[in-house]
Amino acid sequence: MTDGIPAAPGTEGWFREGPDGFALLAGRCTACGALSFPPRTVPGCPDPGCEGLEQSPEPLSTTGTLWSYTDARYAPPPPYPRPPGTEFEPYALAAVELAAERMIVLGQVAPGVPTGALQVGMTMELTPGTLRSSAGVEERVWNFRPAPNYEAYTGEAQA
Length: 159
Hints:
3% of the residues lie in helices and 37% in strands.
């Protein structure tokens, strides 16, 4: 299932939306299996000891552990894209270590998740996110949010 929102410029091929859900896509070297995210745009393996040139898209884990985060409370300098007439809204960035790959991926924390709800070591899950360009056009990105069964986020443990 897709909602038709195009990928933010520069992120085409970095994730997929469909019947199997939303997932980030890495490039997997067809010679040695090394992963790179984002997928490499030039031929070659991220492992300097491998001479492989080809990679295939590989969906990454959709859950991981919050490795670190930061709270952005000031507007970045231009050309920070923001629709005209809108105020900057603080946001958080998360570094999440994906469960299976042990790879750390950065992503914005989903809107509505207060920074006070974040704790290093908590389980996070991937979710589609939306940015608005300076022209007001919606663009698809990815966000992370606390996993629904995480006690500190929901206030109570779920079975």
